[in-house]
Specification:
The chain is an alpha+beta fold and 469 residues long. It folds into two domains: 102 residues, Glutamine synthetase, N-terminal domain (Ubiquitin-like (UB roll), Roll); 318 residues, Glutamine synthetase/guanido kinase, catalytic domain (Creatine Kinase, Chain A, domain 2, 2-Layer Sandwich), CATH 3.30.590. 35% of the residues lie in helices and 19% in strands. Strands 7, 8, 9, 10, 11, 12, 13, 14, 15 and 16 form a ten-stranded mixed β-sheet that branches. Strands 1, 2, 3, 4, 5 and 6 form a six-stranded mixed β-sheet that branches.
């Protein structure tokens, strides 16, 4: 629920290189691999973790020693793609993880001397071609399409999560509420340590605070280009868990761990720039909504239902998306309501660089590479085809009757994983954006999860039905 929108960071690489790369500015146009090797020598790095994400956004890692680093930077590391969710069928498994030198960073929570560093990897086939189901490559491809039209896509996520006493039962550490600063907010020190660790890795934090639910917290990352931000979100989730573990508690990004409380979202603050100009701002337009911003919002509204298997990929995700918990249930937008799918945040008249849109349906357990890719693709489709933006709603959507909703062009979002699977599988737009490999594999994976869930007999059912039926 944070409202910070930091200064736009201008860079083409990952912000995570900030405190390493700056040390070698005198090297001019030297190969970035040279920077990495020099940084390892300077900081006594012994191990380098090579990171990438599977189709679900689970962080994968292989560690190499400094002696293997130069080889890995040139040739990559071969691994068994058939053992990674969504990567390959058995029998065609060999793949290459090629480190991206721009993402080199020391891991501040690992002991020193003999430090540990990390780099994100791009996944390739053994012939050197990009692997079509690599989430990071998919985001690169969608971003490149926008760049061909002159746009740069910036993202600032507001990431919510919980601290619990352990991973077995969702027992909160406090009974604090929104923005509380009292002894009841036992997460203050955890947040402080996490922010310091994130900044040590070059990941800017705009703000952090206690959220609405007991033991729920939020951190807003300072916005940057979408690829750098997706890498940062992957790092963020690990760091939050690492700090919590060091303090004997458990951090969870589960979308809805407490039935009677708000769930955890990842609200996305989005903007498009053309060079130094914010394409979402028009001083002469009503409400300063440029045509690009209007069409972009319309794209998000139209395509949100078919994108929700990406932005809300778990059975539990749909327990969050119900009325009364500040979460969207319909394809509505407004300037003020926190329960709409898209909100247009206010900004000061002289702060045109801050013009943006807030996409509120994603949760903090999604795959950030794919979520950012489909959000950008939907917005760009709206711009390219000139989608009309319906009127904003001026009251909660659940107060509107069925006829008024239809007249306004507002439709219900999928309310279960099963509905989301059906909308996603039948979407030509999703197949065009993500490719058949991602779509078919994700549908197969999620159908299995949905079948497992539907076969369960819950405590609710036993308590409600067994005594009377």
């Amino acid at each position: 629920m944070g409202r910070a929108w930091g200064l736009r960071q201008k860079q083409s690489g990952n912000t995570a290189t900030a405190n390493i790369g700056g040390m070698y500015d005198g090297m001019g146009d030297a190969d970035p691999r040279t920077h990495v090797l020099q940084a390892c020598r300077d900081h006594d790095v012994k191990f380098i973790r090579l990171w990438f994400a599977d189709i679900l956004g689970t962080l994968k890692s292989v560690a190499i020693t400094i002696e293997e680093l130069e080889h890995a930077l040139v040739d990559g590391i071969t691994f068994d793609g058939g053992a990674i969710e969504g990567y390959a069928r058995h029998g065609e498994a060999d793949m290459i993880a090629r480190p991206d030198p721009a993402t080199f960073q020391l891991l501040p929570w690992r002991p020193r001397p003999q430090a540990v560093a990390r780099m994100f990897c791009d996944i390739q086939r053994t012939n050197g071609d990009p692997f079509e189901a690599d989430p990071r490559w998919i985001l690169k491809r969608v971003r490149a399409r926008a760049a061909e039209r002159g746009y740069t896509f910036y993202v600032s996520p507001e990431i919510e999560f919980f601290y619990f006493r352990d991973s077995r039962t969702p027992e909160p550490l406090d009974q604090g509420g929104y923005f509380d600063l009292t002894p009841s907010d036992s997460g203050s020190d955890l947040r402080r340590e996490t922010v310091l660790m994130l900044e040590e890795m070059g990941i800017g934090v705009a703000l952090s605070h206690h959220e609405v639910a007991p033991s729920q917290h939020e951190m807003d990352l300072r916005y940057t280009d979408a690829l750098s931000m997706a890498d940062s979100v992957m790092s963020f989730r690990l760091i939050v868990k690492e700090v919590a573990m060091q303090h004997g508690v458990y951090a969870s990004f589960m979308p809805k761990p407490l039935a009677d409380q708000n769930g955890s979202a990842m609200h996305l603050q989005l903007s498009l720039f053309r060079g130094e100009e914010n394409a979402f701002f028009d001083a002469d337009a009503p409400d300063q909504l440029s045509p690009d911003r209007r069409h972009f919002i319309a794209g998000l509204l139209r395509h949100a239902p078919e994108m929700m298997l990406i932005t809300n990929q778990w059975v539990n995700s749909y327990k969050r998306l119900i009325p009364g918990f500040e979460a969207p249930t319909h394809t509505s937008w407004s300037f003020t309501n926190n329960a709409d799918l898209v909100r247009v945040p206010a900004h000061k008249p002289d702060m045109e660089m801050s013009a943006r849109v807030e996409y509120r349906v994603p949760d903090s357990a999604c795959n950030p590479y794919l979520a950012f890719a489909v959000a950008l693709a939907a917005g760009m489709r709206g711009i390219e085809e000139g989608y009309d933006l319906p009127m904003p709603v001026d009251r909660p959507v659940w107060e509107l009757g069925a006829e008024e909703l239809a007249a306004r062009g507002i439709f219900a979002l999928p309310s279960s994983l099963g509905e989301a699977i059906a909308r996603f599988e039948g979407s030509e737009f999703m197949r065009e954006t993500l490719g058949d490999a991602i779509v078919d594999t994700l549908v197969h994976n999620k159908r299995h999860e949905w079948r497992q869930y539907r076969s369960q007999v819950t405590a609710f059912e036993i308590e409600k039905y067994l005594p009377s039926l």
